[in-house]
Structure formats: structure tokens, C-alpha cells
Amino acid sequence: QVQLVESGGGSVQAGGSLRLSCASSKLIYDINFMGWFRQAPGKEREGIAAVHTRSGNDYYADSVKGRFTISRDYNKDIVYLQMDSLTPEDTAMYYCAADASRASPLIAEVYNAWGQGTRVTVSS
After folding, report:
1. What sign does the dihedral 16-3-101-75 (CA atoms) show?
2. What percent of the chain has pLDDT over 70?
3. 99: left (phi > 0), else alpha (psi -120 to 50), else beta?
């Protein structure tokens, strides 16, 4: 099973940016979908961005569309999440996921591998 390690979380003021990284133990070219999810205290895990690693087709939740960008680096086997125009509502634990069992890339239940998460805090 693929192992995932997230990094890049931290604290930032509203309007700022962060870039999260998800390093994969397997070639991301061989993984169908990779996604980013987040979970705020007291809320359900939310799928916010995903990418089909071979085609590059990407998917976004309405809550982040136009502000977040998912990208992949085959050379490093890393998937990134560039987060711009952050607001306090973006405060959450962010998780990377890989290896979807079906083509529903923003649904948490379809993924078979998860990272440990990285925390993002946005202050007003």
C-alpha cells in the first residue's frame, strides 16, 4: 500500500498563502487519483481537490475553486496543494489521499491510503 506524508501546514494570516506537499512512496504515475481533504473541528471530512495523476484532470470543491490549485510532480512523486486567499474558514487538518477504488475523487470513502495530516491555521 502506498505511504503518504504531508507537509507544509502552518499558521498564516487571512489573505495569505500556503503550499502543502504530499510525498508518495510509490510512483504517482501509477496511482489513479490523489486528493486533498480537510477536517475542521466538529465537522465532517471534506474533499477539496483531487487530480487524476496521468491525465492531469483536476477536481475542486466549490468552497476552494479559484483559490486552491492541485498539481503533481512526477520527478519527485509529490502532489501539491497551492492555497491562496486563505480565510479563517480554511482552518483545518489537511489530509492527502491516494488510490481511489472508483472515479469519485472528492469522496473520502473511495480512497485506500491516507497520510497523517498537516494542520493549517488561518487567523483574521
Report:
1. positive
2. 100
3. left
Dihedral of alpha carbons 78, 115, 51, 59, sign: negative
d(CA 29, CA 55): 10
Instruction: Give the separation between CA 14 and CA 64, rounded to whole angstroms.
Output: 14
For residue 35, which amino acid is it? G
| Grid coordinates of 80 | 501539491
Going along 8-104, which residue ranges are E strands?
Answer: 10-13, 18-24, 33-39, 46-52, 58-60, 68-73, 78-83, 92-100
Confidence of residue 103 (pLDDT cuts 50, 70, 90): confident
